[in-house]
Design goal:
Mean pLDDT: 88
Helix content: 10-25%
Structural class: alpha+beta
Distance between the termini: 80 Å
Number of helices: 8
Number of strands: 13
Low-confidence stretches: none
Radius of gyration: 26 Å
CATH architecture of the largest domain: Roll
Shape: elongated
Length: 296
């Protein structure tokens, strides 16, 4: 059965059982109402693994449309498939446009307002004008990512880093203007930072950003690593920077871009070229070089 026949049947069914208080809108579910504006050429509805380019404007019923949010961006279908959007995604196709009215609490505000300087209202009915501009399936996304990885490795790496930071619940700090980010997990036992010449002992665990597989672990290797700070070729560059940030007894999570990790060559069979990595680092012990004194 074609999309057009299904749409006609759906509209007819909604009209027959319509109990909407909003003129021109049909009731979809509990306090969710829809008005179909444009029927596009798409034939399939979104699946959870798809990415959706959605253009939307949101406003309180009786207010200005767009006053709460006006944007066009990509969302993961699985992040939207709840409450009012769940009703929408069961019916919308690529190219369709519709207006939907539902209570404030039925919209996924955390997903919609992420990284935006806007706030969700406390109460009221919200009207959303939305268009499904494009559906990008998992297979399409994988092909595009692989092409980007090959042709523009730095852009692909930045995309991975941005996606990781966006989905982390606890924010990370950026180290200067670099692509290195970190989050300190525990307090320090000492207030003195590590200097060149200090003997340091660290424990760490490294994992791939894409699949989370652990490939480097001092516990698994049998013991922590001890070396003199400042000596060449002791640890990769990112671990050196992490030690500069940490104080004795402190632990942090560090996102190292490839330039601070394994670079354009990677580690064959373990870390892909131009791949950022995640390290959990604990500064176990610091033996101060001769002449250093504690800060009073």
């Amino acid at each position: 059965m074609s999309k057009w026949v299904v749409a006609a049947f759906t509209i007819g069914l909604l009209t027959a059982c319509n109990t909407s208080p909003y003129e021109g809108y049909k009731r979809l579910g509990d306090d969710v109402y829809m008005h179909l504006q444009v029927l596009g050429d798409g034939e399939v509805i979104p699946k959870d693994g798809d990415s959706l380019l959605i253009r939307l404007r949101m406003g309180l019923v009786g207010g200005e449309i767009g006053e709460l949010l006006s944007t066009e961006e990509w969302y993961a279908a699985k992040d939207l498939r709840k409450d009012a959007f769940g009703d929408v995604l069961h019916r919308i196709h690529e190219g369709d446009s519709m207006s939907v009215i539902a209570p404030v609490q039925k919209w996924p505000w955390h997903t919609l307002l992420d990284d935006k300087h806007a706030e969700a209202p406390d109460t009221g009915m919200v009207r959303v004008e939305l268009s499904l501009v494009r559906i990008r399936t998992e297979s399409m996304r994988s092909l595009e990512d692989e092409q980007l990885r090959t042709s523009e490795p730095y852009i692909y790496e930045r995309k991975l880093i941005h996606a990781y930071l966006k989905h982390e619940k606890v924010p990370f700090e950026r180290w200067g203007t670099s692509d290195m980010y970190y989050r300190l997990k525990t307090p320090a036992r000492d207030t003195i930072t590590v200097k060149n010449g200090d003997m340091v002992t660290i424990s760490y665990r490294g994992k791939n950003m894409e699949d989370g597989i652990v490939f480097d672990d001092t516990k698994r290797n049998g013991m922590p690593l001890t070396f003199r700070m400042g000596d060449k070729d002791q640890v990769m560059q990112g671990l050196g920077y992490a030690i500069e940030i940490l104080q004795e007894g402190q632990e942090g999570i560090f996102l190292f871009p490839s330039e601070f990790a394994f670079g354009a060559k990677g580690v064959p069979g373990i870390v892909d070229p131009n791949m950022p990595v995640i390290y959990t680092v604990h500064l176990d012990k610091v033996d101060r070089a001769t002449g250093q004194r504690s800060v009073q």
